[in-house]
């Protein structure tokens, strides 16, 4: 299981926050992998997952959102799922990349920046796992999975399926 956390030079985050985020991201990714292993009767077990997370400012996010979604404004999180790409079968454990705007997260944060970053990471991870929120029913399912992943990230002890 690997979580690669990259932080752009123009983004400032305390070292303690970086370490905690790295740890809890890894727990969420491991919980997601364990959940799919548990459900292996329905699909092949993926083993461990790999996810790259990049924390950026609004300027970089605006460029990515414009280039990939045609929206010339920053957004909070973008998910680039490798499972949807042409080489997905060759690397089933590579879930994809998440890009989170720390600037936007700061503006949106109601319970603190860290809680918002973890919320956005769990939301993006759900997209990498194939969830979406095109209607209310899908949104309820996705939000429940994201909440389960965040709860497992904060729980102490051995990582369980979530």
What low-confidence regions span 5 or more consecutive residues with pLDDT below 50?
Answer: 42-46
Name of the CATH superfamily: Metalloproteases ("zincins"), catalytic domain
Shape: globular
- Gyration radius (Cα, Å) is 15 Å
Structural class designation: alpha/beta
The CATH architecture term is 3-Layer(aba) Sandwich
End-to-end gap: 15 Å
Largest sheet: 4 strands, mixed
DSSP strand tally: 4
Taken in chain order, the helices and strands follow as: EHEHEEHHH
For the record, the CATH class is Alpha Beta
Quickly list its features.
4-stranded mixed sheet; 4 strands; alpha/beta; about 160 residues
Written account of the structure:
The protein is an alpha/beta fold and 162 residues long. It has a single domain, classed as Metalloproteases ("zincins"), catalytic domain (Collagenase (Catalytic Domain)). The chain contains five helices and four strands; from the N terminus they run βαβαββααα. It has a four-stranded mixed beta sheet. Helix 1 links the parallel strand 1 (2-7) and strand 2. Helix 1 runs parallel beside helix 4 (113-128) and helix 3 (102-108) crosses helix 4. The longest helix is centred in the N-terminal third of the chain and has 24 residues, at 15-38. The protein is globular, with a radius of gyration of 15 Å.
